[in-house]
Write a structure and sequence with these properties.
91 residues, alpha+beta, two-stranded antiparallel ribbon, 4 strands, globular
């Protein structure tokens, strides 16, 4: 039994996964991510893509096209009881 809390335990399947747009695979595709994580990402991204144009108005397109690559970390409790790390970029 590991002395690490479940959220920090790195034993088991730790192969990176991905979710996003890949032209050859269709609009959105994913590999090696649990469905609950994909659903969380999809709901969050869908909400942002609907809300940000309303908030930014005429600045939306330029802001989107010049947005930097963002790295993120979701602490335990955001999606489930694990840490999730990722990279987000406009496509």
């Amino acid at each position: 039994m590991s002395a690490l809390p479940e959220a920090l335990n790195t034993s088991g399947d730790t192969v990176p996964g991905w979710y996003g747009k890949v032209a050859a695979l269709g609009d959105f595709a994913q590999r090696r991510l649990p469905q609950h994580c994909v659903r969380h990402c999809d709901a969050w991204l869908s909400g942002m893509m609907q809300d940000l144009p309303k908030v930014l108005g005429a600045r939306w397109l330029d802001t989107y096209l010049t947005a930097p690559v963002l790295r993120f970390a979701w602490a335990p409790g955001v999606v489930d009881m694990k840490w999730w790390f990722g990279v987000l970029m406009a496509s």
